[in-house]
Design brief:
It contains 13 helices and eleven strands. By secondary structure, the chain is α/β, with parallel strands linked by helices. It is globular.
Length: 376
C-alpha cells in the first residue's frame, strides 16, 4: 500500500500545476497523487503533457491515479468540460478520457454519481433529494451510461470505480456492479461519506472490500444537532471513523491498494460557501424513506457509534462542532476564512502520520517517508 492525496485537496495544486504538484507531494512525504479526472492533468488530453506527468511520477516513485468524473446525466450541465472534450458528444468525451488514461497506464478510474452542494441546507445539498427527478431515475440513467462505457473500459483494461459519494449507498453501488460487470467496474471507498447515508463505516467496508480498487481516506465529526446529526470533516484519526478496524479489512482484500487522503481544502485554494454546517437528517421521514436498504442492525450500530463518539466529546477528548470550527487548525468559519496553506499542510501531515503509525502497528505494509522513519 501507498499513502497519497487527492489533488483537489492538495494545497496550491492549481497554482503549481500537475508536474510541480508531484514534487510537492514528494516533499510532503506522501506516496502518490489522485487526480479526480484525467482533465485535471491535461484539460486538452495532450499526449505529451500526460506522458510527462506519468514519467515524472515514475521518477519520484509515486503512484498516479485518475478518473472520468461525474457520470449522472442529470448533472452533465454542471460539468460542461466532459461534453466539450468529446466535441459535443459526452459519451465520446468519456471514451477519450478513458483511452487517454489507459495510454499512461492509469487503469483504475474514479467516477461519481452526483455533486454535493454545501450552500444548501440539509438533504437539499444532495442530488439524491432533487425534486425534478427521483433518485431511482438517476440511478437508471447512470446504469445506462455505464453500460455504454463498459465496452470501452474492457477494451482498455480499465475499471470504472464508483465512489461511495455523498449521494449513493454502498448497496446501490454493488447492484450497479452486478449489472455492469465487475470486470470493468469497482469501488472507490470513501471512509467517511457513507456516514451521510446512515451507513456504519466498518459495515460498509466489509460490504464493498472485495470490489475496492481506489480510496478516499477521510474522517469526520458526527454528533446530534437540531434537525438530525452534524457532519464535519476532521483530521484522520480525530473523528468517528474506526480506521483500526477498516484498514485491515481493505488490506486483506487488496494488499496493493493505494490510500488517497481527502482532507479539508485550504480556503486559499477553495473559499468556503455561506452554509458550512452539514446536517444528516436521519430522523426525517423523507430521509428515512429514501434509504430502504438501511436495516435496523446497522442503524443501531451506527447510532451506538455516535453515542460513543459523543461520550468522547463530552469528556473533552474531542472538540465539539463549534469549538473545532473556531479553532486555528479546524475547518474554517465562513466569516474568518482562516484555514490557509500552513493549516492545510498540518492537517495533511497529522492525518498521514496517524495512518502510517496505525499501519505499522497493524502489520500492514505501507511505503512512505514517514512510515519508514517510524519503522527505523
Amino acid at each position: 500500500m501507498r499513502l497519497g492525496i487527492d489533488s483537489q485537496k492538495l494545497p496550491e495544486f492549481l497554482k503549481r500545476g500537475p508536474l510541480a504538484s508531484l514534487d510537492h507531494v514528494k516533499e510532503l512525504g506522501l506516496g502518490g497523487l489522485f487526480f479526480p479526472t484525467v482533465l485535471d492533468m491535461s484539460p486538452t488530453l495532450d499526449k505529451g503533457a500526460l506522458r510527462d506527468i506519468k514519467t515524472r511520477a515514475d521518477e519520484l516513485g509515486l503512484y498516479l491515479e485518475s478518473g472520468v468524473g461525474k457520470i449522472n446525466p442529470y448533472c452533465s450541465a454542471e460539468a460542461p468540460e466532459f461534453r466539450a472534450i468529446g466535441d459535443g458528444d459526452i459519451i465520446l468525451g468519456f471514451t477519450r478520457m478513458i483511452e487517454a488514461s489507459a495510454a499512461i497506464d492509469c487503469r483504475e478510474l474514479w467516477i461519481s454519481p452526483g455533486n454535493f452542494k454545501s450552500e444548501y441546507p440539509g438533504r437539499l445539498a444532495n442530488d439524491r433529494f432533487r425534486t425534478d427527478v427521483t433518485w431511482d431515475e438517476q440511478l437508471l440513467a447512470i446504469e445506462k451510461v455505464l453500460l455504454k462505457l463498459a465496452p470501452v473500459a474492457r477494451a482498455n483494461g480499465v475499471h470504472l470505480n464508483m465512489e461511495t459519494h455523498d449521494e449513493i449507498t454502498s448497496f446501490e453501488i454493488l447492484r450497479l456492479i452486478e449489472k455492469v460487470g465487475e470486470d470493468c467496474m469497482g469501488v472507490v471507498f470513501d471512509t467517511a461519506n457513507g456516514l451521510q447515508r446512515g451507513e456504519h463505516p466498518v459495515y460498509a467496508a466489509r460490504r464493498v472490500a472485495p470490489q475496492v480498487r481506489q480510496t478516499h481516506i477521510k474522517d469526520a465529526y458526527v454528533g446530534r444537532a437540531a434537525g438530525g446529526l452534524d457532519f464535519q470533516t476532521r483530521p484522520v484519526g480525530k473523528g468517528i471513523v474506526d480506521f483500526a478496524a477498516i484498514l485491515p479489512i481493505l488490506a486483506k482484500a487488496n494488499p496493493d491498494l493505494n490510500l488517497s487522503l481527502e482532507v479539508a481544502a485550504s480556503v486559499e485554494d477553495k473559499p468556503r460557501k455561506a452554509n458550512p454546517r452539514q446536517c444528516i437528517q436521519i430522523d426525517d421521514p423523507v430521509w428515512r424513506a429514501a434509504h430502504p436498504d438501511l436495516n435496523a442492525e446497522e442503524l443501531d450500530a451506527y447510532m451506538a457509534l455516535v453515542d460513543d463518539f459523543e461520550t468522547r466529546v463530552k469528556s473533552g477528548e474531542i472538540p465539539d462542532w463549534e469549538a473545532y470550527e473556531a479553532s486555528e487548525y479546524g475547518y474554517p468559519t465562513y466569516e474568518t476564512q482562516s484555514y490557509g496553506y500552513p493549516q492545510a499542510v498540518t492537517f495533511i501531515r497529522n492525518s498521514a502520520r496517524f495512518i502510517e503509525v496505525l499501519c505499522l502497528e497493524s502489520g500492514i505494509k505501507l511505503s512512505g517517508t514517514i512510515a519508514k522513519q517510524h519503522a527505523a
